[in-house]
Design goal:
- The structure is a homodimer.
- Chain A is α/β, with parallel strands linked by helices.
- In chain A, 42% of the residues lie in helices and 15% in strands.
- In chain A, strands 2-1-3-4-5-11 form a 6-stranded parallel beta sheet, sandwiched between helices. Chain A has a 4-stranded parallel beta sheet with strand order 7-6-8-9, sandwiched between helices.
- In chain A, helix 9 links the parallel strand 6 and strand 7.
- In chain A, helix 1 crosses helix 2.
- The longest helix of chain A is centred in the first third of the chain and has 16 residues.
- The interface between A and B is large, with 64 and 64 residues.
- Strand 2 of chain A pairs antiparallel with strand 2 of chain B.
- The structure holds a DNA duplex.
DNA sequence: CTGTTAGCGCCTTCAG
DNA sequence: CTGAAGGCGCTAACAG
């Protein structure tokens, strides 16, 4: 007759007992789809649940019904505003659907990505969403792809936000087009010579943006010499150092510096300023992403605006709502936004 | 003799069958603590698991052993760098211990906080970590407290990062002391009159910072008139608008503007600049938090530096490692960092 | 509608 | 060291 439990949460069975009904009835009253249970009983069950502070064991439910309402999200670095904004979108959309989101951050290390997927697979999430640039090296995605395929074979849905290199639904951020569009605008504003601060060569996002930008300049008759192409980390400090290297190479003729993301642009601006370069008088600067918390740097940064939150929403929509085949591509186009960091050039 | 499954992941039983051993043996080989199983069998099981792409069902494990290795994290807004930095610390520390982190964002709405805890309770996480300012209104924490108490009674561990208002372990960010220390430094630098841009009056973090700052100025003989105390949202736009309001009140005599967080300070600076106010020549500015992505705004922002990532680590350490009673307080002190936005004042 | 009875996938005594 | 059996908390047919 001992109703107490040394520890551990109260179970449905206890609730049923206290309410004086069967386990099944309690279950139906608490979760089972809509009104199919006597109002009186229902009330008694609810009351019992309340006094016992009952909370349904989601894990048990998952086992019983053979499925969860969880979504796993894998990002490269949650403290980076780019990823946290996307994560925000994912979480909002998920919550609207009553889904729980579990997040993992790979710290930008390739191996962790696969390991993380493996671990998350055990959760049997409805969907695994992977956001972050792919790497160029052929076959480097092999392991990850296998893991993901296994997950899909078991009924899971994979969604990626990156380059469509793997055979899964992917939110395809058109970096090349965005960078080209930005370059086009800049050229219209009078720019003829530009330098590019790019990320690690095997990081596709960095490469695509750099190439798209360079191609557009070349097409308009202003090819960018390799000398003006500097590589650095995809981070703030990477931008800082790359700017330093660029200056070392001499940036006398450079009218504009395009950093492949806003954070790098910010770092570059910090370096330039510290080196006595006036912005934007001596040289213009542009970035990519349109990160919200960088909106107030001075001069206001010209960039390619990406609907980060929306991308997050799309990711879960894409993963859940459709009957799309596993190879859907949802393109996302960025919009160039010219601000004070790249003033109109008036030539004599 | 059908080994296929229409869908759904392979189970331990299938692995066992393929390996030609019992369920128990397979279980032990795959998870059971250390070597207690014949190497040959173990190999066979591992091989079977591999060819089947087996992934242990965490939910089932949780039900069977009556516990999970999950940690739930509730933040006010994951896209805010303040929270995402703390989240980053939590996740790093969690991963080191093989824990899975599930995150929820309340969108800064009080009611969602309680709802979220209720939902997370069902996951039976080892710990629930709540990060975000408490509200002042007496009894407003009642519901949340009840929910949390119920969770604790069932064996869970609650950790808060906020004001120690509730009877749970809490990482106590000493806002008052931090703001006072900043004020002290500023006074040493020659500042005598300051204005404060604060957040909603019932948001304790905002209130504590404003009060700590004001108190320090008053103690040094430079009380801050209510006229120089402007309230706004705890966001970038809040800072922008508050700065506008402040200017409307006339900021002729104000030497320094203290915004209760960096984001607001950034917004304020944007407004001031747009209004033709020179920074820091016409007025100095200071913030609080030392947000990384704001490090490159101009002029470099004076602020109180908080070890955000570390706070995240502490939170999970505090929640997991100790035998502390449920009422531990871990104080965290911020360090004032004076930068270009608040130059030394030399008086005639 | 309600209660009874099987499982869900896995762990864990408990004999062998 | 191995296998059989019971149980974790809950849901889902199935009969009443």
């Amino acid at each position: 007759m001992n109703t107490e439990r040394a520890s551990g949460a109260p179970t449905l069975e206890e609730v049923a007992r206290v309410a004086g009904v069967s386990l099944a009835t309690a279950s139906r009253a608490l979760n089972g789809s809509s009104r199919k249970v006597n109002p009186e009983y229902r009330e008694r069950v609810l009351a019992a649940a309340r006094t016992l502070d009952y909370s349904p064991n989601l894990a048990a439910q998952a086992v019983a019904k053979g499925g969860t309402s969880t979504v796993a999200l894998v990002v490269a670095d949650i403290s980076d505003p780019y990823f946290s904004s996307i994560a925000s979108g994912v979480m909002r959309a998920a919550e609207e659907r009553g889904l729980i989101v579990t997040i993992g951050s790979t710290e930008r290390r390739r191996a962790r990505e696969t390991a993380m997927v493996r671990m998350f697979r055990g959760q049997r999430p409805r969907s695994i969403i992977l956001v972050g640039s792919r790497w160029a090296a052929l076959g480097s995605d092999r392991e990850l792809g296998d893991e993901l395929k296994a997950y899909e074979k078991a009924g899971g849905r994979v969604t990626m936000v990156s380059q469509p290199q793997l055979p899964f639904r992917t939110i395809d951020i058109r970096n090349r087009e965005g960078a080209a569009a930005l370059a086009g605008q800049l050229i219209k504003h009078g720019y003829r010579s530009a330098a590019i601060l790019t990320g690690p060569g095997d990081l596709n996002t960095a490469r695509e943006r750099a190439e798209g930008f360079a191609a557009a300049f070349a097409e308009h008759g202003h090819p960018i010499d390799d000398r003006w192409l500097v590589t650095g980390d995809f981070t703030r400090d990477g931008g800082f150092l790359a700017a330093a290297e660029l200056r070392r190479r001499g940036l006398g003729e450079v009218e504009l510096i395009f950093a492949v993301n806003d954070i790098m642009a910010g770092g570059a601006m910090a370096y330039l300023r510290s080196a006595g370069v006036r912005l934007p008088e001596d040289v213009a600067v542009a970035g990519f992403d349109d990160i919200y918390s960088l909106r107030d740097i001075t001069p206001a940064l010209t960039t390619v605006s990406l609907p980060l939150e929306l991308i997050g929403r799309r990711a879960i929509e894409c993963a859940l709502d459709d009957e799309q085949n596993g190879d859907t591509r949802v393109p996302i186009y960025g919009v160039p936004v010219l601000r004070e960091s790249s003033p109109l050039i008036v030539r004599a």
